[in-house]
Design goal:
TIM Barrel, 12-stranded mixed beta sheet, 30% helix, globular, binds S-adenosylmethionine, binds iron/sulfur cluster
Amino acid sequence: MSTLLDTLNRPIRDLRISVTDRCNFRCVYCMPREVFDSNHVFLPRRELLSFEELERLVRLFAEEGVRKLRLTGGEPLVRNDLEQLIERLANVHGIDDIAITTNASLITPARAKGLRDAGLNRVNVSLDALDDDTFKAVNDVDISVQTVLDGIAHCRDAGFDDIKINMVVKRGMNEDDVLPMAKYFHGSGHILRFIEFMDVGNANGWQPDAVFNAQQIVDTIHNALPLEAVEPNYAGEVAKRWRYTDGGGEIGVIGSVSQPFCGDCHRARLSAVGQLYTCLFASMGHDFRSLLRDGSDDDALRERLRAVWSHRSDRYSEVRASLAGTPIKKVEMSYIGG
Ligand code: SAM
Ligand code: SF4
Ligand code: SF4
């Protein structure tokens, strides 16, 4: 079978699956309380793709080239029995890597072990500050830094050896925590990845001057802990790699705004209700749930995927500047996952 490529010759390799639109945090840059308040209507259970439906889609997507899965949300660990889903997906032919992105606040020792036993390969933990007041101001639900650090420790104890820490940096929110975070994870064996604040969705009121950019992040760290650039692990790696010259390990910097990387983007995102988004900044998804639920056969689903991907031309980050000022309705991050 021919390799499925988009109009810019990019294959589909990674699938990010949002398993829920709910979250126990209200991070100010993602689910600000003013928007995601008690009046916000979250998806009812029946609307979410079932584990059977997800397994079927992943099997077909794997046939078209998908190798890596990332479970995300919302907070993926608020979805009941997530371990059962992981077990199913780990057995799909062609899938060689399953990762999760989580705020880690719900990870107990038993949950960490359950995730590992189910076949989860990697964990990315989001932590935006080491200072408790700053972190609580970001998550807006009074969860302490220690809760997240405990979650990381439980994952390590359960045998996960590739745990990355993700820190979104927003000017005026947490740029003063860049260096303390770097120092804390220096020498820990965990790769800390800094992520520029992005204009995903419309709820967070993004403005260009709120971006503390990749160069500023590197300079802040380099002045105290000297860094040198490292070659990427593979083409299309989104994080630029930097190594501490004193042997204290490495960091990653994801400059989605200042250093766009659409050229190698082989990621697709599936919302919890089965809409496929071919770009993080898309305003529209492509419906797969109706086909899953109307008795369509595998060929019909395959055909839809091939039609969607072969027409894909997304490169939003590369054309962002030229769109400045154009109002665009974009899907929220908590809906399609990071
Ligand atoms: N709840 C999980 C978590 O926070 O890890 C998974 C979902 S969350 C939407 C996935 C990632 O997206 C997190 O690392 C989060 O910090 C990041 N994120 C959310 N909104 C963002 C934004 N506007 N810019 C950059 N990263 C963002
Ligand atoms: Fe929840 Fe993750 Fe968004 Fe924070 S970044 S509100 S933890 S989904
Ligand atoms: Fe991929 Fe869209 Fe991000 Fe470009 S802007 S890297 S196409 S998700």
